[in-house]
Amino acid sequence: MLHTQLKDDMRESLRARDEVRLSTLRGLISAITNELVTRKQKPDEHLDDDGVLTVIKRAVKQRKDSIEQFEKGDRADLADKERAELAILEAYMPALASREEISKAVASAMTTMGQVDPGKSGIIVGMVMRELDGNADGALVKEIVWEMLN
Question: pTM here?
Fold first, then answer.
């Protein structure tokens, strides 16, 4: 289970005195505990892998947003800290779909929908993201859809 692996990795980080990894994993485990409470489960139960991945995806998105904001505010020191945390979190994420896989999924979705006008590109993006189980960069999917529509 991914939840157990995270707890084991946190203990390992504590022994290795890896402060960045330790604080990142502690925050992630705390977010998982919050998710358990939200789902009306006991905080000492284990969250299934899909639930853990949802929490990790949320944390990755938060880090990416923070990096963007810190760069706009000329705070490279804080952006670097967020990048280090992002690298740790991404190690637990499944591999993202390649550009070729996304292109095939977009072509398939467009064939299914038939004639598509560019105003309905969001529908295709949504179909592709569902088909790829969310394991694709949404911005890349949107870019490929626009390339194929125009």
Answer: 0.75
